[in-house]
Specification:
single chain, alpha+beta, Immunoglobulin-like, 2 domains, seven-stranded antiparallel sheet, five-stranded antiparallel sheet, 2 helices, 12 strands
Length: 220
């Protein structure tokens, strides 16, 4: 007579993780343990019973591993769905204007939103707007500001109140801290976004920046 225990499939820890159809999957191993537990109960010596508690504990551990695997599968599916939803959401931002790190921008007769990131509170903040030749066309004193983001809309006019022609212009931000130390905050200028993915944005001017570097999306 054949031994029913010897016919059971045995788990090999050196093998790769089992697939759904693998005979050493957690499901099959659980069934094996149940079979082994039943056979032990049926064939044990009443005078020296086997330790069924140990096998029950091992079965519980297998079930726990199975539950963790199921949870990992569910989380992977959720992350995939969230990534897809994020991509769909971002697809509507392609072609829009955004405030991105930089000091140059294109002016075409419409007011321009500019911004700076202050690393510390300042007592005097100033913004200079230069033309393509580097000549200052407008100087704006913005006074004291706390740490954080400062936005300023430039109307496109020079110091004399005359509208400047369309073209490329450059911003220069400068400030003094309460201790009198000069600082030059990072500027942000409007630029069109050409492409997006989950980690970075390709800008119309050829630059590539991280999504987190976009300070603000501007109205279409």
């Amino acid at each position: 007579m054949s031994d029913p225990i010897s016919s059971l499939r045995v788990y090999d820890g050196s093998r790769p993780q089992a697939s759904a159809s693998d005979p050493t999957s957690v499901k099959d191993l659980s069934q094996n343990f149940l079979h082994m537990l039943t056979m032990q109960l049926r064939n044990q010596d009443p005078m020296a019973p086997m330790d069924n508690a140990a096998m029950t504990a091992q079965l519980a551990q297998l079930n726990m591993v199975d539950g963790i695997n199921r949870l990992n599968t569910s989380m992977t599916g959720m992350m995939s769905q969230m990534k897809t939803a994020a991509m769909i959401s971002m697809s509507g931002a392609v072609g829009r204007m955004a405030l991105a790190p930089g000091d140059s921008f294109e002016f075409s007769s419409q007011p321009v939103r500019l911004a700076a990131q202050l690393p510390a509170a300042v007592g005097e903040l100033e913004l200079s707007i230069l033309d393509a030749d580097g000549a200052e066309q407008r100087h704006i004193a913005l006074g004291a500001h706390e740490i954080g983001t400062v936005e300023q809309i430039w109307d496109g006019k020079d110091a004399a109140g005359q509208m400047l022609p369309a073209g490329t212009y450059t911003t220069v931000w400068s400030a003094k801290t309460a201790e009198g130390r000069s600082v030059f905050p990072e500027g942000h200028t409007p630029v069109r976004v050409a492409a997006l993915n989950t980690t970075h944005a390709d800008l119309e001017d050829g630059r590539q920046i991280g999504i987190e570097q976009i300070l603000k999306w501007l109205q279409a």
